Amino acid sequence: MKDVTWQEFEQILQKLGEHRSAKIAYDHYTLKIMIPVPEHEILKQIIGDLIKALLEDLDVDVYPLGSATFKNPSMKQTIKPDSCFYLANEVEVREN
């Protein structure tokens, strides 16, 4: 969807709620809504498990955060990764 304001985007997110299966991204007035297919979810799980195993083997502390939505209203953008992991600077990232 094009020409969606940041306020409209926030309203859509609020109406859909946090526990939705759709992935929603916003980039400079463009709203994208994606529904992951089973093959995508399987690969996401395999890749996430590989990352966790590698980090455990390397003895690296990790803070898995899942598919959190990161918003930047000043840049008019969001990202919602399938999975994300904090390896360093977790406190700084969480506070911003």
UniProtKB/TrEMBL annotation:
Domain of life: Bacteria
PANTHER family xrefs: SLL1186 PROTEIN (PTHR47152:SF1), SLR2084 PROTEIN-RELATED (PTHR47152)
Protein name: Restriction endonuclease domain-containing protein
